[in-house]
Amino acid sequence: MSGFTKIVFKLHNFLDRNKIKNNLKFKPSLTSKTLVFAHRGSKSNCPENTLAAFHEAVRVHADGIELDVHLSLDNELIVIHDEKIDRTTNGKGLVKNMNAVDLKKFDAGSWFNPKFTDEKIPTLSEVLKLLTDLSFTGYLNIEIKTDKFDYPGIEKKLSDLMKETKWPFSYIYSSFNFDSLKKIHTFDSKAEVNYLTKNLLTLKSHYKGSSTDFISGIHPRRTYAFKHPLLLKSSKRPLRLWTVNQETEIRQAFQQHVAGIITDFPERALEIRREIQDQSK
Question: Does the keyword section mention Zinc (predicted)?
Answer without folding.
Answer: no
